[in-house]
Amino acid sequence: MAAGTMIAWVAGLAVVAVILWDVFETIILPRRVTRLFRLVRLFYRWTWIPWRAVACAVRKRNRRESLLSYFGPLSLLALFAVWAVGLIFGFALLHYAAGSAISLAPNEHRGYLADLYLSGTTFFTLGLGDVTPQTELARVITVLEAGIGFGFLAVVISYLPVLYGAFSRREANISLLDARAGSPPTAAELLRRHTQPHSVQALEQYLHDWETWAAELMESHLSYPVLCYFRSQHNNQSWLAALTTILDVSALLIAYGEGSLRWQSKLTFAISRHAVVDLAQVMNCAPLESDGERLSPAELQKLRALLVAAKLSPCCEQRRELREEDQRLGDLRRMYEPYVAALADRLLMPVGDWEPKAKAVDNWRTSAWARISTDATISPLADTEEKEHF
């Protein structure tokens, strides 16, 4: 066997095996893969970096977010194309190594281009019949490629509904958070809107629901990391901002709260922190050092007052100096904020501050034609006796 033929056999088998294994790990295997060398990891590194650079050059936020929103779906289609083209080239190498044993028209020349044409028509099961295999080995390669091509198309078709189903479940809770925590969501606004009677029980149940959401987010996004690039319907919403808001609120209630609400906050914080750390690892985002400026002392004092107003923290009302509680909050923040900052920098998803910005308007109050007044008296969500808190 000539050296060129041996190289073609090894290269063809290697290309086919690597791509099929990559498809298996990406679509079928229901767990994360931490191996550094992966075709899909290289693909997203080579495509996201230039796309991100172009998006950063766009000054207008709406246009930048619109450009970034196209990356997730387009990259998915491009990945399918890369897999398909790679398999076609790999099987063409196998036909070439087998001696290009195919029938051609009198004026056609044998060679890799003819093998490539046969491989392409076989993979997409066209069945044109103008080029056919002539030896038993060539027929085996052709049948094997036809079966893999048919199975590849079936896996891709079944993959899309699963992917978009997970995306829809993720976005449902993010949309519901708009009325609870504002747009973009913040911890202060979530607490401010839970100062009504019986809000403690409501907030406890709400954190329990977000505990489930965080677990589903971790499961789906670790299995299908491409979902991390899929952006929300509104420019001021994202899965990362929502997860950060829940972590912020949970950290506050752990540091200053008590009772069953504090216990539920611990559970929600644990699974949410687990999700953000694992996703940072899958996205290969090293944690960034946090300077602590995201929460200023003045904002922390306001948050304490909100906890007292909502009857969520009796310790804030009883004592003026809360060094132990403040230290606990700082320790909790250092457990997740570096990973949040790394993901926000990689994905260009701002997570916002603890306090809402001035004149922030909820998405449900706006439309393409007008913006509803922010006066609480017209809000269906505000209690007439407590309208100043909304």
What features would you describe in this structure?
With about 400 residues, the protein is an all-alpha fold. It folds into two domains: about 5-135, no CATH class; about 185-360, no CATH class. It contains twelve helices and two strands, in the order αααβαβαααααααα. The longest helix is centred in the middle third of the chain and has 46 residues, at about 135-180. Residues about 385-390 have low confidence and may be disordered.
Q: Provide the helix percentage.
A: 55-70%
Overall geometry comes to elongated
Our Rg estimate from Cα atoms comes to 27 Å
Task: Please count the helical segments.
Answer: 12
Beta strand %: under 5%
N-end to C-end Cα span: 80 Å
Structural class comes to mainly alpha
Series of secondary-structure elements, N-terminal to C-terminal: HHHEHEHHHHHHHH
Low-confidence stretches: 384-390
Total E-strand runs: 2
How confident overall, as mean pLDDT?
A: 84
Task: Quickly count the domains.
Answer: 2
Largest beta-sheet characterization: 2 strands, antiparallel
Briefly summarize what is shown.
The chain has twelve helices and two strands. With 390 residues, the protein is mainly α. The protein folds into two domains: 3-134, no CATH class; 185-362, no CATH class.
